[in-house]
From TrEMBL:
Belongs to the cation transport ATPase (P-type) (TC 3.A.3) family. Type IB subfamily. It holds the Pfam family Hydrolase. Keywords: ATP-binding, Cell membrane, Membrane, Metal-binding, Nucleotide-binding, Translocase, Transmembrane, Transmembrane helix. InterPro entries: ATPase_P-typ_cyto_dom_N (IPR023299), ATPase_P-typ_P_site (IPR018303), ATPase_P-typ_TM_dom_sf (IPR023298), ATPase_P-typ_transduc_dom_A_sf (IPR008250), ATPase_P-type_domA (IPR059000), Cation_Transport_ATPase_IB (IPR051014), HAD-like_sf (IPR036412), HAD_sf (IPR023214). CDD domains: P-type_ATPase_HM (cd02079). The keyword Cell membrane applies. The chain crosses the membrane at residues 12-28, 34-54, 61-82, 88-106, 235-253, 259-285, 580-599, 605-623. It is found in: Cell membrane. NCBIfam families: ATPase-IB_hvy, ATPase_P-type. Residues 628-652 are annotated as: Disordered. It is a multi-pass membrane protein. This is Haloacid dehalogenase. Residues 120-219 form the P-type ATPase A domain.
Length: 652
């Protein structure tokens, strides 16, 4: 019984019943010799398939909308009145089959949203009153401890507070390689454990999870209208009444009612109307699967026109975490380790922002944790001076060396040599700090915010994707910015910028005729992000605000997602144009066929439905994943983006 109900309410019920009646009509007339019953069954086939169409056309008319269904309804009713029963049945049957196929394929284009909803967990195992309790996922309370076992879905957003494991985060970031998780790491609802056991403190539940925000954003984006789609809607609103008027005029002039009714059928702009939304739905769905959230059709179209990309340096092109890169002894009696040890002792009691990379490097080289110096004297803008084992150790710039009496022993020549080494390191994008003992320079330590390994490849792919200019906008000093720009292959570097300067830089690019995308952290870059044609937030999985406000949100902190997003936008817009061309050529060809003769209502409807399906199938090509180069295995971004030579240099 349930199977019967399912079939009766299915999308194939109407075309199936109509098709059986058509076959019965042919059998009655040609095999059994009952032409009257043949006509009755043919009319019944037309009524079964045509009733939903007429009903929809009537509802549209009451809402003052003249659509495709009205054209088909008028043509079918006219065909019945002139006793052209086969044409009426064939048109409605083909229209019903086409509608069922459209529904099936359109549902396929929305598969990304269905898959996102499917990964949402239903239950959670929480610790309550010292025991494990299974509860609905939405009933977990923020702050509770949730247990995630091997093979289970993570039911909440949270932070790992115990255990280790690996999670498949493809549903959130599009990354196919499981990510290892340890205490302190963030986890997201909908990800799946592939091994281990995790204790997670819930920080986001129900509608407050990253997965819920993604689903909400994709729902809105797939329903949002692009500018081209809005134009097509306005065009159809005028086109359909114009076709009805044209058919009436043609019928009156030629006195050929069949010709007029045929024109109504073949002029249906179905493929034209569906060409834009089906492409947008497929494109946004593909992006969602790859961890690229695009806010809507309008932003998809704009992204396809991007020809200039402005990038922040710190945290985007670079790690955003300075590391020790060089240790240079200036006197023969001290080794690199000796110089680093002195610098670490002096920096141990310092709040200097570059103290941490020095201390971390000393720890990585196996040096014992330095004790606090006897005295510590920060010198704003210059460095730090400390008393270590009774000796005065200074770590800072040339101004600090001079203040410490660096001219006393070595004289001007030694200071000039030191200055030359400092200048060379600065030209390479490093921040050098002189280490002086009792006023004498004994070494140099240099730190740098290291360039991310994928940065240069990202710039190359942006250019390959049609971006003409890649610009770095940074508040850093000119030498460091120039060095990073040269390593990465940036086309233009603008350094020493305040947030309002970045806004002016984006506006200047727009005045030059560029369509600009700005990539930043959404805080100090907020003015520039708002001014740009497209604002892009990277690593948005842990930032709910970025998901809601950015025009494009890249869920994973992966630079290569940026050119992938623009390539997807260009492919989508290209598909939209192809679909429009298919629709227009089909209608023009059919109209020519009607004028020259030979195109009947049934043939016209068959070609019309074929064009609709061709448009949908063409859009569905967007759902295919384009394979990226093999991903590198890694645990965290900090380890991923540090190249092997850099790791060896730090550890040496």
């Amino acid at each position: 019984m349930n199977l019967v109900r399912t079939w009766l309410s299915g999308r194939w019920t109407v075309p199936g019943a109509s098709g059986l009646l058509i076959l019965a009509s042919f059998a009655s007339e040609h095999a059994l010799g009952y032409p009257l019953w043949g006509d009755v069954l043919m009319i019944a086939a037309a009524v079964v398939a045509g009733a939903p169409v007429v009903s929809k056309a009537w509802r549209a008319l009451t809402a003052r909308v003249v659509g495709i269904d009205l054209l088909v309804s008028v043509a079918v009713i006219g065909a019945v009145l002139i006793q052209n029963y086969w044409e009426a049945a064939a048109v409605t049957f083909l229209f019903a089959v086409g509608h069922a196929l459209e529904t099936a394929t359109l549902n396929r284009t929305r598969s990304a949203l269905a898959e996102l909803i499917a990964v949402a967990p239903d239950t959670a195992v929480v610790l309550r009153a010292g025991g494990q309790v299974e509860v609905p996922a939405q009933e977990v309370v923020t702050g509770e401890t949730v247990l995630v076992k091997n093979g289970a879905k993570v039911p909440v957003d949270g932070v790992v507070i115990g255990g280790t494991g690996a999670l498949d985060e493809a549903s959130i970031t599009g990354e196919s390689i499981p990510v290892e998780k340890v205490a302190g790491d963030d986890v997201f609802a909908g990800t799946v454990s592939t091994g281990g056991f995790l204790q997670v403190r819930a920080t986001g539940v129900g509608a407050d999870t990253t997965l819920a925000r993604i689903i909400h954003r994709v729902e809105e984006a797939q329903d949002a209208r692009a500018k081209t789609q809005a134009f097509m809607d306005r065009f159809s609103a005028w086109y359909t009444p114009a076709i009805i008027v044209l058919a009436v005029v043609l019928g009156l002039v030629t006195r050929d009612l069949v010709l007029a009714l045929t024109l109504l059928v073949i002029a249906c702009p179905g493929a034209l109307v569906i060409s834009i939304p089906v492409s947008i739905v497929a494109g946004i769905g593909r992006g969602a699967k790859d961890g690229i959230l695009i806010k809507g059709g309008e932003f998809l179209e704009t992204s396809a026109r991007i020809d200039a990309v402005a990038l922040d340096k710190t945290g985007t092109l670079t790690q955003g975490r300075p590391r020790l890169t060089d240790v240079v002894p200036l006197v023969p009696e001290l080794s690199e380790d000796d110089v680093l040890r002195l610098a670490a002792r002096a920096e141990a009691g310092s709040e200097h922002p570059l103290a941490r990379p020095v201390l971390d490097a000393a720890a990585e080289r196996g040096m014992p944790s330095p004790g606090l110096p006897e005295e510590t004297h920060p010198v704003p803008g210059q460095g730090v001076v400390a008393v270590v084992d009774g000796r005065r150790v200074a770590v800072g710039n040339l101004a600090l060396l001079t203040a410490e009496g660096g001219l006393a022993e070595g004289g001007l020549a030694e200071v000039e040599r030191t200055g030359a080494r400092v200048a060379a390191l600065a030209a390479d994008g490093r921040t050098p700090m002189i280490v002086a003992v009792d006023g004498r320079p004994v070494g140099i330590v240099a730190v740098a915010d290291t360039v991310r390994a994928d940065a240069s490849e990202m710039v190359r792919r942006l250019h390959a994707a049609g971006v003409r200019k890649v610009v770095m906008l940074t508040g850093d000093v000119e030498p460091v910015a120039r060095s990073v720009g040269a390593q990465v292959g940036i086309d233009e570097v603008r350094a020493g910028l305040l947030p309002e300067d970045k806004l002016e830089a984006v506006a200047d690019l727009q005045k030059q005729g560029y369509t600009v995308a700005m990539v930043g952290d959404g805080v100090n870059d907020a003015p520039a992000l708002a001014t740009a044609d497209i604002g892009v937030a990277m690593g948005a999985a842990g930032t709910g605000v970025a998901i809601e406000t950015a025009d494009i949100a890249l869920m994973k902190d992966d630079l290569l997602k940026l050119p992938q997003a623009f390539s997807l936008a260009r492919r989508t817009v290209s598909t939209m144009r192809q679909n429009i061309a298919i629709a227009l050529v089909t209608v023009a060809t059919l109209m020519l066929g009607v004028v020259l003769g030979g195109v009947t209502m049934a043939i016209g409807m068959l070609v019309h439905e074929a064009s609709v399906l061709l448009v949908i199938v063409n859009a569905m090509r967007l759902l295919r994943r384009r394979e990226d180069p093999p991903a590198r295995t890694r645990r965290h971004e900090s380890e991923q983006d540090r190249t092997a030579p850099e790791r060896e240099k730090v550890a040496a």
